[in-house]
Q: What sequence folds into this?
């Protein structure tokens, strides 16, 4: 929080899985939320992630003390709340511009219905999974709400060939807590990582004949590869 008081707009928290990133984010958000303006209004905060499970854990777990100030943002613009939780997919990122036969702008670009200064803080969970690269899905949202304070959270340490852009965007972490330190302090058990590749990643995904997308349109009759997962198709 001291970095915010110093005027820093982009911050990165790098903590090993299981050592409390979401709880730290809650404490930062709570202090920030308590700073009301002259009219007594609380700042608007957006919690952004890409997994429904992570969203639920945050909204119904660590951020539960926000009570009725919380709202799960999905398909419609809402402005009466102060703590918003959403998937970047729900905001309409990653879709082509709509045509007359396709869904409306509200359904495809929900975040653009908000003024650019609507949110004063954006918290990005697991930010290494798409927020950082110039073409990354979340980067569009962060650029749109550029005036807000951006707090990225990741459990992945800096790996030049994999997530260099994350650190280029947010800067070096304002706080780091490694898995080795977590093991020494007794918060984490020692473990070994075994990398496996799923069969669907190896073979790709071929839709069945007549299978429809979320808008009721037939899926293209071809095999989608792992590079297209969560970009052109979600499974």
A:
């Amino acid at each position: 929080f001291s970095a915010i008081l110093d005027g820093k707009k982009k911050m990165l928290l790098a903590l090993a899985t299981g050592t409390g990133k979401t709880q730290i984010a809650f404490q930062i958000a709570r202090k920030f939320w308590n700073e009301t303006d002259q009219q007594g209004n609380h700042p608007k905060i957006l919690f952004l992630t890409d997994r429904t499970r992570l969203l639920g854990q945050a909204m119904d777990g660590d951020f539960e003390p926000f009570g009725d100030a919380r709202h799960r943002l999905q398909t419609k613009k809402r402005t009466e709340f102060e703590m918003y939780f959403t998937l970047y997919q729900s905001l309409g990122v990653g879709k082509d511009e709509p045509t007359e036969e396709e869904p409306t702008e509200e359904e495809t670009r929900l975040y653009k219905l908000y003024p650019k200064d609507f949110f004063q803080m954006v918290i990005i969970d697991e930010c290494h999974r798409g927020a950082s690269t110039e073409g990354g899905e979340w980067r569009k949202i962060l650029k749109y709400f550029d005036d807000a304070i951006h707090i990225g959270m990741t459990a992945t340490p800096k790996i030049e060939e994999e997530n260099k852009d994350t650190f280029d965007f947010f800067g070096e972490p304002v706080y780091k807590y490694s898995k080795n330190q977590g093991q020494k302090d007794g918060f984490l058990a020692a473990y070994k990582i075994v990398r496996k590749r799923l069969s669907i990643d190896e073979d790709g995904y071929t839709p069945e004949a007549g299978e429809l997308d979320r808008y009721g349109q037939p899926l293209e009759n071809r095999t989608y590869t792992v590079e297209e997962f969560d970009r052109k198709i979600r499974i």
Remarks:
- The helical segments are 2-5, 21-33, 52-62, 105-108, 137-144, 160-170, 179-184, 199-203.
- Residues 143 and 155 are 23 Å apart (CA to CA).
- Residues 96-107 have pLDDT under 50 and may be disordered.
